[in-house]
Amino acid sequence: MTKEVLQPLAKPVYGAGGPTGTWRSQRPVLDKEKCTGCLLCWIYCPEAVIAREDRAIDYEYCKGCGLCARECPVGAIAMIREGEEA
Amino acid sequence: MSREIATGNTACALAVKAANVDFIAVYPITPQTTISEKLADYAAAGELTGKYLTVESEHSVMSAVAAAAATGARTFTATSSQGLLYMHEILHYAAGGRLPVVMVNVNRAVCAPWCLYADHQDSVSQRDTGWLQFYCASHQEIYDSIFLAYKVAEQMEIPVMINYDGFLLSHSMLPFETLEQEVIDSYLPARQPAWRLHPQWGGTFSNVAGAAEYAAYRHKLAQDTLEALPVIKAAIAEYEELTGRPQPGLVQAGSKGGQAGGTGRTGGEGQADSESQTGGESQAEVYLLSMGSMAAEMELAAAELTKQGIPAAALKLRIYRPFPAEELAALLPAGSTLIVLDRNLAYGHSGGALLMEARSALYNSGKNIKIAGSAVGIGGQDLPVSLLIEEIRRLLEVTKS
Amino acid sequence: MLELRIHGRGGQGVVTLAELLAKGAVKAGKEAQTLPFFGVERRGAAVKACVRIAEEPILLRSMSYQPGYIALMQENLLPYAKLEGFGQDGTEPVFIINGKELLDVAAEQWLVDAEKIARDQGLVFGGEAYINVPMLGAVARVMGLSLEYVEAAIREQWPGKKAEPNLAAAKAAYEKVEKVEMAEKAETVEKAEKGCGEE
Asked: Nearest-CA residue of chain C relative to B299?
């Protein structure tokens, strides 16, 4: 007989908090020409929305905190106001 | 007297500031935190008569205020949920030591799982600590209860816990009237303890007691807790006379069947209008008992049910400990039906704590009252009037079967 | 009873807007209640608050599901307003929107560029405009609360010189908020399923 799990359990799920990209007022935009691939942005991103392979940013969940832009040692990431062109 | 609109926690802090409290110790916890912040602001601005102590936990908080009360000080603290549970050991100590601490508990669900919102599990699970427990349904009741609590606590030398719902009252804004300082001072003169802990007195406090001695102290506390009922009534009457402000009784029948307006622009939707008032409690056949913020909304539910052809009246329980059993029985006509909605769960029993209390209080009343109840609003589940009515109608069917 | 539900984002001053409106209503001799919903108190996350204004003491202690008025601090909050519910039984709410274009809802809509009004008055912090004060002016106008009471509430909130840009912003929005007629009636709103998540 298998027992039903009664405990209040939870596991991290990608995007469980909803599309948190709507929280953003500014978005990070990566200049791939300047990027050296040091991966500091990937390490620092608190939302883990920067891909390791190509540093693509998942704007569906990026909250626009700006940590990546602040940490980038070569200034390859700019914070652009939403609604404005990069 | 001035009319203000502020949050429930601000109403609480304003009253505490005015109550000439000698000693305050608070540890922050949601949703109580803004009380501790407001009081700290007053302390920093030099507006508090007493001392404000920051401590490292709720267990220390209750130890500090109980000890301060033993020295003859008028003391205050506030907490919620896990904070109240952490105080549990010293709650017994404060009541057993006959130390008239006044504490506000901003009601919040208890873990697990973790939850920030209102229910009464935290306070009803402290039922047998010997503390008196008041519940509030409005900001005016929060403000007024602070003064009533000190009056009763210091006369009976029993601590009082004032409870009100987290967020629904603590963080919402509602208007209330404050009192002039002279009025408060005349209602609440400086505390006059029969005894106080002091180095020059040279004795000790709460030493080891044998069974006979211990039992005598504890039976006396149990007896005095019951005798607090007339004391609370007298304190309410004196407050009414002094302020000219009518106060709800220990258990209060709804003053009206409903209010004009509802949720729309022009009012009306889902709400009773003024012509459908219950027209006096004597006409009601169904009585709706609850405590906390839900008790205010139950007046609207009663009005709506009356409109739907079920003459109903709301009963708001203001004092949970001591339980006003006779007062409740007196409000209920023979053969009537009592529906009890609890915002807590009585595990191992149906419904919640208030349902058990009501059944026990009415068992020997000889009035043949049908009773049913359930637990709603757990963990802050929102309770719109429509949901209350749905649940009441379901319970009415239960009483018929 | 008048009932307003405000949808905004953490950091936009939704709770302050609700409180100032309620304070203004009490100054006008009315009964009022604010009922903020706390949960995601994070900058940028969707937040909401209710305000009730009545002639008699307010006994409701629950959130508002069919408000007569809905204020949107940002156009992209419409899905949250839909999720929370409105407009059943033909009682469409009046919308007061910080924005320039009509939203796709079959309801009366008032538009105000609160962002521009705030920036014009220098109500900017960290690059973000304080839109709650102009929205207060706009909401008061649409709900029929006289500007003088709003001004009194603002003066109480920000004593001295700090009140001035706030008073100017509230007044500008009070005057500029505009009811915009729809060219054609939009389709009836369907309950939003996407765009809100589990917040």
From this structure: C59
